[in-house]
Amino acid sequence: MTLSRVILGFLAVHPMTGYDLMRAFATSAAYFWHADKAQIYRTLAKLVAEGLAEIEIVPGTDAPDRVVHHITTHGRTALRTWLLAPPERPAPRDPFIARVFFAGELEDDEIIAMIDARTADAEAARDALSAVRAVTAHPDAGADRSSWLRSMTLDQGLREHEEHLRWLGALRSGIREGASA
Amino acid sequence: MTLSRVILGFLAVHPMTGYDLMRAFATSAAYFWHADKAQIYRTLAKLVAEGLAEIEIVPGTDAPDRVVHHITTHGRTALRTWLLAPPERPAPRDPFIARVFFAGELEDDEIIAMIDARTADAEAARDALSAVRAVTAHPDAGADRSSWLRSMTLDQGLREHEEHLRWLGALRSGIREGASA
DNA sequence: ATCCGCATGTAAGTGGTTACATGATTCG
DNA sequence: CGAATCATGTAACCACTTACATGCGGAT
């Protein structure tokens, strides 16, 4: 459901091919939604079948044909309905936290290694977001609301990573102190 | 994969029935992993088929029979292997953030309503965790590491909710200020 | 009597991942 | 000449959700 609406959201801005959407998910949407290309093509076909999008074949002169998808009026209505629907929080599912929960039997250095790997991971993710943040404009809510909202979603990802890193730090010191005590 | 290992983690502490696991997921595991009962029964059957768990039928005297699952030696090895495996971060998928990303066309009060609903949701989740935190002991890392680790995972959930609420506050004021400007 | 908790599962459907498959163009 | 990018998709599989199905015992 959400995937189809996110795709409609992108199509509402620009008509796009499956490939264009792949790039959109790999860049602008990467920090709040992930989608595989098999899923994207499957979902585009479904949107067309439901009348929420229409295709236009743009013949490639010296490249393969592009199947450009346009949002329909029905599609815009469906998008708005989804935006106003009651929010659902996704069920938490984080394998790392699950590991920590059951890590009691591991040696200290095994747990530390686990924490360090996760820390490197979270730092990389945070740095990737910071880099995007650095190159994009930082508008205020009054001027261009759409881009302000998009920049706020980026902020959310950054804050989440920073908080997670702080927690990982506390976890690591706890193990170190427990070991020395 | 993770679900089967989390189940093994629980079975490593106590032998359990599918129903016991349902309750474990609804309480102690609720803030880091969600599992439906259909999934639990299916996964238990798979663990038995793989030789990682064994069943013992405890006839119910005045209640239905209990199918108690015990972890095997193989099961303990598999659990340890999973604990030491390289961590994978779950792909981000949060419908609410996706909605904010595309919310530019909504009216101010529609966005505010959306934020307020999410805030109520996050506050409820935070309060539920605080309540658990209040009743459980708060051991230090040196004394009982297993329970300290479990309390740290709870902390992580709490911190995440608090940070999210701070961000929702910033988002709300941004909209309000933009509207008045 | 009816609902809640205990206790077990199956069936059908949706959403997501991985691997397979093809072919042109552009850059080093 | 080989690798990367553009561009399209299919097939099979795994994970998760929702609805269906049954039956006992205790409380209101």
How would you describe this protein?
Two copies of one chain form a homodimer. Chain A is mainly alpha-helical. Chain A folds into two domains: 2-84, Winged helix-like DNA-binding domain superfamily/Winged helix DNA-binding domain (Arc Repressor Mutant, subunit A, Orthogonal Bundle), CATH 1.10.10.10; 95-180. Helix content of chain A is 65%, strand content 7%. Chain A contains seven helices and two strands. Chain A has helices at 2-13, 18-26, 37-49, 73-84, 95-101, 108-135, 145-180, and strands at residues 53-58, 66-71. Chain A has a two-stranded antiparallel ribbon with strand order 1-2. In chain A, helix 1 crosses helix 3 (37-49) and helix 2 (18-26) packs across helix 3. Chain A is elongated, with a radius of gyration of 21 Å. Chain A binds a DNA duplex (28 and 28 nucleotides) through helix 2 and helix 3.
List the helices and strands and how they pair.
2 copies of one chain form a homodimer.
Chain A: H1 2-13, H2 18-26, H3 37-49, E1 53-58, E2 66-71, H4 73-84, H5 95-101, H6 108-135, H7 145-180
Antiparallel strand pairs in A: 1-2
Chain A binds a DNA duplex (28 and 28 nucleotides) through helix 2 and helix 3.
